Amino acid sequence: MVTIQAVIQNSDGIHVRPSAEITGAMAGYDGSVTLVASGMEVELSAMGLLCLGLTCGSAVEIRVQGPDETTVAQKLKALMEKHYDFPRQ
Asked: Is the pLDDT of residue 86 over 80?
C-alpha cells in the first residue's frame, strides 16, 4: 500500500464538477483507493469526495493498494491539487 498526502488547491474546494473529473480519470483502476480527511475515511467515489467536504487548503490522505500503486497515487494527488477552472454559474 502507498500512502501520500495532498492539499486541495482549488479555490472552491472539491465540489460536484471536480469530483466527477477526478473519479472519471480514476475509473477502471483495479486496486482500491481510500481517502482520509476530516476524521472520515471513504472509498474513492463522487459521493465519497463530496462527503469529505474538502475546501481549499484541506489536507487529504490518499491510500492506494493494487497495481502501479505509486503511479496511481501520484496521479490522484495531481488531480486533488489541480486548480479547476470552471466558470461561475
From this structure: no
Contacts of 87 (CB under 8 A, 6+ apart): none
Domains of the chain (ranges; CATH) run 2-80 (3.30.1340.10)
Q: What is the DSSP string of the chain?
A: -EEEEEE---TT-S-HHHHHHHHHHHTT-SSEEEEEETTEEEESSHHHHHHHT--TT-EEEEEEESTTHHHHHHHHHHHHT----PPP-
Grid cell, residue 45, equals 467515489
C-alpha grid cell, residue 84: 479547476
Judged against a pLDDT cut of 80, whether residue 89 lies above it is answered with no
Q: CB of 62 within 8 A of CB of 77?
A: yes
